[in-house]
Amino acid sequence: MFSFFGVPVDAAYHLVSGLTGVFTPVLGALAAVAAIVVFTMAVRLLLMPLSLRALRGQAVQARLAPHLQALRQRYGRQPERLQREMTALYKREGTSMFAGFAPLLLQWPFLSVMYLLFRSPQVGGTANTLLSQDLFGVPLGMHWLSGAGPASAPGVVFLGVFALLAGLCWLSARLGRRMAAQAARGGRDAAAPAAAGGPGLLARVLPYLTVVFAAFVPLAAGIYLLTSMAWSLAERAFYSRRAASGKGWTALSTDRGVLRPEVPSGAAQLTQSRARRRPAASGK
Prior knowledge:
- The protein has helices at 6-27, 31-46, 48-75, 79-93, 102-117, 153-185, 201-205, 209-214, 219-244, 249-252, 266-283; strands at residues 122-123, 126-127, 134-135, 138-139.
- It is an all-alpha fold.
- Helix 1 (6-27) packs across helix 5, helix 3 (48-75) packs antiparallel against helix 4 and helix 3 packs across helix 5.
- It has eleven helices and four strands; from the N terminus they run H-H-H-H-H-E-E-E-E-H-H-H-H-H-H.
- Strand 3 (134-135) and strand 4 (138-139) form a beta hairpin.
């Protein structure tokens, strides 16, 4: 275990162990699993403002993608001019190219602590007793690859976790495509149209890497991944519904969370200028 995370992992261990003791009289053998789920949800709830800010930043990037593509096509051979135009665009929108990345980076230490807790055999120099607990008779410290096989009782439990993870990955990918389409419609006035066609093979496969990753970690870490992914999906669904209602997607797609008027493209600006000149000409 990395010494940098030693103290927070030890603190998290005592918290989860305390929750396990509280749940044991009611849930019995499932107390440790319930403690992992509750602790994970509590941490994700505390990190929710950062998560929503990251979603807003990602929505900004998707909405501005047609504008950025148009700038690249126009100033592709003038790197300095392209950089100035892109900087000006981000400034007008009150955001930056790192709007969706920085909040995710701030969450990384907290999520790393939880992951280390649920996969480390020792915490603070002593055995991690959480991993000695079980789910339907399968120790939380067991790995799928070290079990008796997929046809055994432990294998069935692991396959159940993998199936739930795969279902969440599918729902997350589907929701992500819908959110990207909604955000892209916010930038439909860009001079260059969005790229046609559906997602490529890599984009279709990447969401399911979590399932592959879960096959190489203890069952406790798999339960953590399952809970965390379910929470992330709920956050994205909440954000999508809020964005699609009332204020609209653009209102939630800004880094500051306020509605900004769309910046018209060069073609739109020319059309608006001609329209304003017509009444003056007819008056003469």
